[in-house]
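Narrative of activities, Objective 1.

The group set out to show that a structural description can be obtained from nothing but a protein's sequence at a throughput compatible with the screening campaign. Below is one input-output pair from the validation batch, recorded exactly as produced.
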Amino acid sequence: MTFDKEKALKQLEELEKLGKDKRLAADEWDEDWKILIAVLLSARTMDKTTIPIAEKLFEKYDSVEKLAKASEKEVAEGISGVNFYLNKARYVKALVEKLLKDYDGKVPHDFDKLVELPGVGRKTANVFLAAKGEMTIGIDTHVDYISHYLGWTKGKKQEEVEKDLKGIFPERLWGKLNWTLVRFGQTYTNRTEKNKILDRIKEL
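Output recorded for this entry:
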């Protein structure tokens, strides 16, 4: 699809101004495995809910080795405040075990290897890589909704949305797209208010 790239850049700049400087799930962790697990936990859960739960989990299990030794039940109890916590506990347990077995406890910085890890899909892998400075675009519900509303994409699958956005925006901005749109989406949680603002941005 084609889109006025200059207009899209203006729209992105406006979205960046309007979004409050909120800490997102991938932000401010001191180790890669914490970033990856926090993003995994944030699926279908607000970041403001996910972050304190992740902080408590990492305080109790401050290394991949310690978390791997925890039982699935203990992990589930530690993350019970996030949605689908039982499934996520299973993924977290399997994830850290695989990191130890295959990668010496380190998180690979390779998309294909990341999506082979338990519980890590395309969005989680891309958000992690963007947090580490790679030029990728994580397509979550906020990015998907805003991109469709503004007409940046008509894609139905993550890969299609990602491809359209990469065709519109210069590579130097790919890594910040998720952060900008998620911060905007989390600032304006009321759908009516959000759509009114997006309608104005649409006319830029």
